[in-house]
Task: structure prediction
Amino acid sequence: GAVVSQHPSRVICKSGTSVKIECRSLDFQATTMFWYRQFPKQSLMLMATSNEGSKATYEQGVEKDKFLINHASLTLSTLTVTSAHPEDSSFYICSFVSGANVLTFGAGSRLTVL
Amino acid sequence: AQSVTQLDSQVPVFEEAPVELRCNYSSSVSVYLFWYVQYPNQGLQLLLKYLSGSTLVKSINGFEAEFNKSQTSFHLRKPSVHISDTAEYFCAVSRVQGAQKLVFGQGTRLTINP
Result:
């Protein structure tokens, strides 16, 4: 079946630094992918939709300059949290469209900003 | 806009007992409905989905869900649970138009006790 690799699974950084999260589809190619964010005991919130080779479309309230998304190929997308602050601490999850009405998710990355 | 409500944040049950995880949604347009499962330290996996046709859909591991349009519900059921069903379960909807963009509920943590 379709597999998505996401890493790092956990990262701790200092306030003001930038962190890059990588998401790869291992056995399929996808034009479209999504980045989600999950706060403790809350739902997954869509941050942005990304199409390969195009600029990402961000949801309302998500700062595009803080959360940089690069989707340069059909198998790789990265999310960079720039100048991270403690309020950016969260669980970030990527997903690729792996079929008709089917998303394949990464295992998530837990970011802690000190 | 769409919204999803999972009424129970945690559901503890004994092994071999039946379980129902509730999901209600709100939408002004036609939607597709999904249940995803997240096992510890893994990414979300599609459990089952309703796109059209029979309102009762089933998964390969004994779960089933029924789409009830009048009650705007998509409750998940299993007649007899196993320890291995311990996981977080997420209900989600997407618009039929632009179907790949999911809106998730808050999740229900199912804990199976021996």
Observations:
- Chain B touches chain A through 23 residues (CB under 8 Å).
- The mean pLDDT of chain B is 93.
- The CA atoms of residues 18 and 79 of chain B lie 4 Å apart.
- The two ends of chain B are 41 Å apart (CA to CA).
